[in-house]
Amino acid sequence: MSNAFPKNSSTSASLPDKQPDNQPDNQPDNQSPNIHSPQPSAIRPAKIDWQMDDTGNQVPVSGEFGDVYFSHADGLAESRHVFSAHNQLPKRLTNLVPHQCFSIAELGLGTGLNLLATWQLWRELRDMHPHLATAKLHFITTEKHPIPLTDLTQILALWAQRAPELSVLTAQFLAAYPPLIAGCHRLNFLDDNLTVDMWFGDAADSLAKLALDTSLQPVPYIPTPYIDAWYLDGFAPSCNSTLWAENIFAQIQRLSYLGTTAATYSCAGIVKRALKDCGFEIKKVKGFGRKREMLTAIVPMPTDLTDVNNNAHDHANNRSADSVHTVIIGAGVSGLLTAWSLANRGIKVTLTDKSAPLAGASGNPRALLAPKMTPIHHVDEHLHSIGYLYSSRLYRQLNKEAAKQNTAPVLELTGALDLLIKANIGTEQIADYPDEMATTLSLAQAQETTGLKTQDLSENLYLPQSGLVNPQALKNIILTHPLIRFQQLDVSSINEMESCVRVEGSNQDKGAMTISADNVVICAAFESHKLDRRIFDCRKIRGQLSWFTPTAAELTNLPKVPLKYSGYCAAFTAQAGDNELNGVVEGAAHLLLGASFIRNDTSTDIRDEEHQISRDKLVTAIPEMESVIPADSSLWQGRAGVRTQTPDYHPIVGRLAQSQRTWVMSAMGAKGYALAPICAETLADMMLGSFAPLSAAMLARLSPNRIRLQTPLN
């Protein structure tokens, strides 16, 4: 391998090759190719065997590779010795500057013990050092055969007994543990400024998907992300050679930088030679327990910066000075979630809207969180699946915050049943998914779950993690963040300068107003193009949602869970504050029907004929509802909004061409509450120079500058 760290480079590694302009961004979501390997199959979970360790405790052993998950002597002590101590983490983490992000990459999640040990260390250091309050730890881990939750719970219960200091973290980790689905699963532990990205699938493919720079023009104040410390913790090379293969070390080389360290329990010759070929200087040190030796390694600094701890990541220092304030234009779901992601990274946000938060298409009484499914061999590059799983975790996390504030929950976990009338997947393909994400109910189970009596439900998709999002509750929690300030502003112009960007407009109370910031993010849906002509002029689709208050008799015969067909229906009970946005009766039950789909219509008046369209969709799909849903819709309520859609159905996320400080997040279509959270995380990572939870190929598909957006719509 060639050395990626040129001898004459004292401050930066050579930039990676740019992402080609012709990335395959024009394919439907369920046909997105995996550019790194043949299409992956479903994840095969780890098979766990058990052995007795040196202290008489049962310890897990890999049934696939016949190797132990951790030392028979003391797995936790081994993790601290090998990975924390010999990556110099206590000192390096203590030396972080405000807002700096430290990235660790692990090969082999296993039982999660390395993550838990690192998390505990990070907590202790943050308690002792107040200057770490805004610093962030990013833990990226890969696993081809993740351990099923039941087995993992059993394994970590043993550690909770042996190491009580891990019990609280273990509970949080298990509560957030994702279904065993290929792709990246982002877990955010906001109280600790810890982000965990779990990439399930082949490690070489996963590492290859980590994007270093997808922009057409690098920006000096945005650092290129790299890995600060490697945990090389795969099973022994003699047991699992694939985690020590050349393609793995090629990615380690690509993702490392001057001062990057690595540690591993292994002293095998293949490991030593590969690390040397990657540009690392290696050293043998005392191993843990029975192991006489282990390896530690570092990409050497130039002679004037020999101490890795002095490499405070120059561009990370810039981050605290150059990215402290962002203006967001548009306070729908995209703007709200972007504000949330940035504020949780310590960035001050001014969130603006020409009228009020959720005044547009995002302000419906409820949003159904239910994905458009895809065959499982596409799932790792399927934005709907990745977004749905992340959104569900985020909203459940926010429910805890709502409980603390004694306010309405953000997500009501109802489950949802898809009748597969308009779907890209059949029951045989659904069977490939873990049941906790998607399954097919028997006819009797489906009838019991829905309350439907005569409908043929033998073909169905049940989504146990689906539910109803309360936009008002979400908005209220986001706007309580101390770094987020809402400002009513009808923006007229955006002027980008070398050192800042100025947003000009009018406020209904104060008149003309100008806000200066370091960055601006345009989240103005179909009006985004009016604010900046470089943003694609998307397709505009009017959608009217309808609802009514059923009688007691009607209520007993309505579906008991949300249903998807050619439209969707969902019963909900209005919570306190819901009537601030819509005509609902607090405490009363309502049935939501939606939604109409009218192209090239930006009017938002309420139309009785579209109430009827939504009713017709329901009774056509479920004839027994004909006698339940009132035919007279004159007393129904409604809300109409304009969805924004691109020709390839992918959102627009990223920095605009020929710009350093203007970003866009738009075109979520009808799936804003499923897609905006993961897209907001991605945009925040791009703005601050961190690794995103989406692949390089997916980032190219979302780019505002992609080729599919160069031709206007007819």
Structure notes:
Strand 19 and strand 20 form a beta hairpin. Helix 1 packs across helix 3, helix 10 packs parallel to helix 14 and helix 11 packs across helix 18. This protein has three domains: 244 residues, Rossmann fold; 165 residues, FAD/NAD(P)-binding domain, CATH 3.50.50.60; 177 residues, D-Amino Acid Oxidase, Chain A, domain 2, CATH 3.30.9.10. Strands 5-6-4-3-7-8-10-9 form an eight-stranded mixed beta sheet, with helices on both faces. Strands 15, 16, 23, 24, 25, 26, 27 and 28 form an eight-stranded mixed beta sheet that branches. A six-stranded mixed beta sheet has the order 18-12-11-22-30-29. The longest helix is centred in the middle third of the chain and has 23 residues. By secondary structure, it is of the alpha/beta class.
List its salient traits.
Rossmann fold, alpha/beta, FAD/NAD(P)-binding domain, eight-stranded mixed beta sheet, disordered N terminus, 714 residues, 30 strands, D-Amino Acid Oxidase, Chain A, domain 2, 19 helices
